[in-house]
Amino acid sequence: MVAAATRQQIVEAADRLFYERGFEATSFADIAGAVGLSRGNFYYHFKTKDELLDAVITHRLFKTKSMLDVWEANAETPEERILSFVNLLVVNQTKIMAYGCPVGTLCNELAKLDHTAKDRAAELFNLFRHWLSHQFIALGREADADALAMHILMRSQGVATLAAAYHDQFFVQNEVENMCAWLAAQRPEPPALCRNPFPPLV
What we know:
Elements: H1 2-21, H2 28-35, H3 39-45, H4 49-74, H5 78-86, H6 88-91, H7 93-99, H8 102-113, H9 118-121, H10 123-138, H11 145-166, H12 169-184
């Protein structure tokens, strides 16, 4: 039980440091220091940095899936659920302005490194993509649900990138408002009322 708790502490510390400093720039010594472990005790849990990276991605996937489940349970409409995703930019804007999007930064770094885990890290985006697509289907946009999901993913990544570049919270808030207005415009048009081809006799 103690070993499992220590392992979890290591994964959570690595998750934070990979986000704040980058995967390549974070050493085992950095993570061991953050947890307060000796190098020997650290190696008992993780022999390689790639093994730890895999555990971090698993941890992030679990946290993301749990968050999506909460949104699914707590919101009554698909539009409200999608808004929960959009509002992440505001909820996490301090960290985003400092370090960027945790998913985007990890995926970009691993892609540049041509790391073997780059496809697995992209599963984080796939989780959001498939969940958002499901919400747009529920909204009545089945034909273009995936395209809409990709659009809002792309837009949120662009906001996160520019937020980190400019450190402008008003930009983030303004863009979130624009995304909310865009989402409202995606509601399907109500069907036109059928005209009676036989007008009443006067």
